[in-house]
């Protein structure tokens, strides 16, 4: 009955948005409240779940998305994105530009949280697409596939790192196995799958489209790349320092502070304000106006993502994930496949890859130990399952839909299908690797 209620809620949300054209954020609020009541949350607690869900998801993403939007708009308006796009095209050529952005997404995705990588890379994708008249999904989806796979499979991202600790896996070995599994998942779910999506109509947000400036007015290539990639460099540097042995605890704490996503994005924005703004002859007041326009561009996206958090929290508070886990844990299946399946079903119902992964860990751990399954592979199997079935209760689904300005149907055909492909290929890679380890 629980799964039926979840399915009805998802269908209702799609109908409200697609058929009746109800504002997406309002639709989320309505469905979240109804879901809470139908799933048995005490009626006086439903609004608390909704508010907590909105607060939790926006608490972690609001600064990243807003500051990232400001930085992205400045990178576009200053001509830095145009310079980066032309440099990448010269390096890779139009024939191989897709592989160039995939490699960029993979390298950036290892140290960066998905949300940060998304808001940093979207302006670059749009600049390449508009300057060279290429299909936007064909170019954009492979890069986002790389970001998604690194988020789900590879430490130091939160879910795989937490799973490695719970399963007593070796973090370095998990990362090595994860790289082996991640590469084919990215290639199949990204460049190969996106060839079938060239015809999807998409007119991305114009806020991040770079002005086509004369070459003489563009910032230098080093300035453009350094400023755009500064958040990545800061995160990598801070992470490497804090992991180094025999460091002064005060310095470790300082670099942990500097390496937090909020502080990294703020530092990068301040640097960009000068390197791509003031030092390029722009007035500070004009730069601030660019930032104000950037906030307007992403305001509704923030609300929609908050709404998806409300639905996720209602489903978590109702105990949906625990009920599903109880139904599945006694099934007689290969442990790696069972771990993947439990994570996939919880992900479908709850919407959060992290919740799906961590919920599955507590259920599958006893079976993993008794069956002597390699814990490093179990981390990857659960991680692959947690990427499956991304749809309307997942914030990533809405980020992709709204930034790329797609219909619901085309978002399912592109984003949701890509996430399931990388999840299935990831499982296949884990099962194959299991034959040799």
Automatic annotation (TrEMBL):
Q: Which UniProt keywords apply?
A: Cell membrane, Membrane, Transmembrane, Transmembrane helix, Transport
What Gene Ontology molecular function terms does this protein carry?
A: gluconate transmembrane transporter activity
**Major site of localization recorded for this protein:** membrane
Which InterPro entries does the protein's record reference? Glcn_transporter
State if Secreted is listed as a keyword. Answer: no
Protein name, as recorded: Gluconate transporter
Instruction: Give a Pfam family name.
Output: GntP_permease
Question: How the protein sits in the membrane?
Answer: Multi-pass membrane protein
The transmembrane residues are: 29-46, 58-76, 96-129, 136-154, 174-193, 225-244, 250-277, 298-316, 336-365, 377-400, 412-433
| Source domain of life | Bacteria
User: Where, subcellularly, is it found?
Assistant: Cell membrane
Q: Which GO terms describe its cellular component?
A: plasma membrane
Annotated family:
Belongs to the GntP permease family.
Q: Does the keyword Acetylation apply?
A: no
């Amino acid at each position: 009955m629980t799964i039926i209620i979840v399915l009805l809620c998802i269908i209702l949300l799609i109908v409200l948005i697609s058929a009746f054209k109800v504002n997406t954020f309002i639709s989320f609020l309505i469905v979240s409240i109804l879901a809470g009541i139908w799933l048995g949350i005490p009626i006086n607690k439903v609004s608390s779940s909704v508010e907590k869900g909105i607060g939790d998801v926006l608490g972690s993403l609001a600064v990243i998305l807003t500051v990232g939007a400001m930085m992205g708009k400045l990178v576009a308006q200053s001509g830095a994105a145009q310079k980066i796009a032309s440099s990448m095209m010269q390096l890779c050529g139009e024939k191989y530009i897709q592989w160039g952005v995939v490699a960029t997404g993979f390298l950036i995705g290892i140290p960066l949280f998905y949300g940060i990588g998304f808001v940093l890379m979207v302006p670059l994708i749009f600049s390449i697409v508009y300057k060279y008249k290429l299909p936007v999904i064909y170019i954009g989806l492979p890069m986002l596939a790389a970001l998604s796979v690194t988020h789900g499979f590879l430490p130091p991202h939160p879910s795989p790192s937490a799973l490695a600790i719970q399963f007593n896996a070796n973090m370095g070995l998990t990362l090595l196995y994860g790289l082996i599994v991640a590469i084919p998942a990215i290639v199949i779910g990204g460049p190969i799958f996106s060839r079938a999506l060239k015809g999807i109509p998409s007119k991305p947000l114009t806020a991040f489209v770079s002005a086509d400036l004369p070459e003489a007015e563009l910032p230098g290539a080093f300035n453009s790349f350094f400023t755009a990639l500064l958040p990545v460099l800061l995160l990598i540097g801070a992470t490497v320092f804090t992991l180094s042995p025999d460091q002064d605890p005060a310095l470790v704490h300082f670099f942990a502070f500097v390496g937090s996503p909020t502080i990294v994005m703020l530092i990068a924005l301040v640097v960009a304000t000068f390197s791509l703004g003031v030092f390029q002859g722009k007035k500070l007041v004009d730069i601030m106006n660019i930032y104000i326009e950037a906030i307007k561009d992403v305001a509704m996206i923030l609300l929609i993502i908050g709404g998806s958090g409300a639905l996720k929290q209602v489903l978590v508070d109702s105990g949906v994930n625990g009920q599903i886990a109880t139904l599945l844990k006694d099934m007689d299946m290969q442990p790696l496949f069972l771990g993947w399946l439990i994570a996939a079903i919880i992900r479908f119902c709850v919407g959060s890859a992290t919740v799906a992964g961590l919920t599955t860990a507590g259920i599958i751990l006893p079976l993993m130990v008794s069956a002597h399954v390699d814990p490093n592979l179990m981390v990857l199997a659960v991680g692959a399952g947690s990427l499956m079935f991304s749809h309307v209760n997942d914030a990533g689904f809405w980020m992709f839909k709204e930034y790329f300005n797609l219909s619901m149907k085309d978002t399912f055909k592109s984003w949701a299908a890509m996430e399931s492909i990388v999840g299935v290929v990831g499982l296949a890679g884990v099962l194959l690797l299991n034959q040799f380890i």
